[in-house]
Structures
1.
Amino acid sequence: MNIFDTHAHFTEDREKTSATLERAAAAGVSRLMAVGGSPELNRAALLAADTAQAAANTGHLPAVFVALGLDRDQAAPQGTACPRYDFSAAIDSRSRISAIGEIGLDFHYAPESARAQCDLFAAQLELARELGLPVVIHTRDADDATLGVLDENDFHNGIIHCFTGSVPFERKLLDRGFMISISGIVTFRAAENVREAARYAPDDRLLVETDSPFLAPVPKRGSENEPAFIVHTVEFLAHERKTTPDALAALTTANAERILSC
Ligand SMILES: [Zn+2]
């Protein structure tokens, strides 16, 4: 298989990252996107890309693309200025930055910071526009606010990661030009709404991801997730969409290449 895991997080442990990337390659992951969201996650994403790059001539690690940004948990406390991510380290790195992310809104865990989250989200969209990059969006219990910020900024270029919303919300995001990325949650018994959304996404708008180290798919539930486990999500999703795992992998990889220009 030729799978593109569009959303994985890493730590700054170089050896662990290297071993994780090796297992991913052995499982059929040819490419992945290392996703930031905080200063630590941003550094770890760059380290993953540098690790893959250092081994590029051996050809035994997946190609690693990078998303950098400031997620909702970095939103400023009330009355202080909205933080700005310093991209100088990233610009100095040899790794190419393919997206701004993850960014977005989560009113499930932090409803009290809604206003600050929206300000930060809007600032990150502005940055993405300046750099001409797509964004990776997290949205939970914030359907209307997410659409509101996107519309205020007239923004149409990106990925809705780990989609767990309803089909009506999905339709509004598709209408605005976004890709829908499905994680291992689709394999969870209670996640019928995610299966419905996964079947609804058109062929040219569907992506797959692990969101590792979180959300290991069945039959790996309970263990720390990693990109190699995406195979289970691809197999499950192929069955849901009445296609083969190879065809689903090819389709989602082509979509990832298009949105990330790689
Ligand atoms: Zn994530």
Note: The pocket of zinc ion is lined by residues 7, 9, 35, 102, 211 (CB under 6 Å).
2.
Amino acid sequence: MSFNVGGLRREQPFRIRRIGHFGYHTPDLSGTIDFLTSKLGLVLSDVDDFTSRMPELPKEHALGYFLRCGTDHHTIVVGSQMLVDTREPDRKGAVVGQVSWQVGSLQEVVDGVDFLDRSTRIRRVGRDAPGSNWHAYAYDPDGYIHEVFYGMEQIGWDGRSKPATMYGRAFHTCPELPQISEHQEVDDALARDGAGGGYRPGNDVEAAFEVDGILMARPFKLTRLARIALFVADPESSLAFYRDVLGLTVTQRVKIKGHEGIFLRADNEHHTLAIYPSALRDELNCAAAIGFSVATYRQLQDARGFLEEQGVAILDLPAELSPGVRYGFWVQGPDRIAIQIFYGMDCVDRNGDAPSPATLPLPFDSWPETIEHGGPAWFEPPFMGPLA
Ligand SMILES: [Fe+2]
């Protein structure tokens, strides 16, 4: 079957453009949020309060945190393990909450609902606040939740999220089309409630680092959530879901300690999603892995020094976990999430081929002080807006 997606013939009624955000659960919300903000420099966009919906939970477990690295309202979403265990007993103990993929339009999300419903099990459809993104959530063969979304709230110059008075246009079912524009929503809110933004985090960390001409609290800026790695029970079944249902493309297969990793992309980057067989999960002792890019190679070097000084554990993980990544290192994040920070990712050529054999990240002790940029062979979207 072929769908018309904005005039393009597609095998799916949507076209995934990039990874948007990653969500996970933690038994220690305050420790996890402290790590993500004070160590990695993610910025808090909003805190969702579930106390009225989940009165049986202690207050500190009835909160959801939304963090960002760019202008997207959220890049990482963190919820309490107790909350998911209580609310969804069939997902008890699940660390990964969601993997969320951006498509190009609300039409694509709505058209995707029937398609996903025919192909897999749908979890929910609608539009959430905070974040304002329209979405359809579906389960993959391992029960990981994949969200196809459009229209993520963008945080602007004043660093404030939308006020809660604008949450009235949340939806819990598939929306009728067409919907009013975001501009109209804002006009309506201004006429109704007057001006006034939502949450804006304080800034109590001294800006002690000069980073390429700007005073910042850390010597680096995470610019983009670039890769997600999931452990799966049956890689070929998972592959069928990611390739045939979500429409991702396989770039490469790489052996990792005798297991095979499969690397898929959304655009022309080497990969966005890595699937590793679950046997590798115990060997590596992590629940999932995510990777962020930084703005420059120098920031990557400085990030490593800063995080080591901060007492963050550097992980010695196999280079084969990250084909296509030129320079990077792993840190131990909370909740058995391995977090990679890197600079320089290959892209595929016009035939869709990546370098073969795969490029593997260079060991830290052999990083040169300066490097040549890879030019068109590297995937490097620019960061929009100020670094801090
Ligand atoms: Fe989401």
Note: The chain has a mean pLDDT of 96.
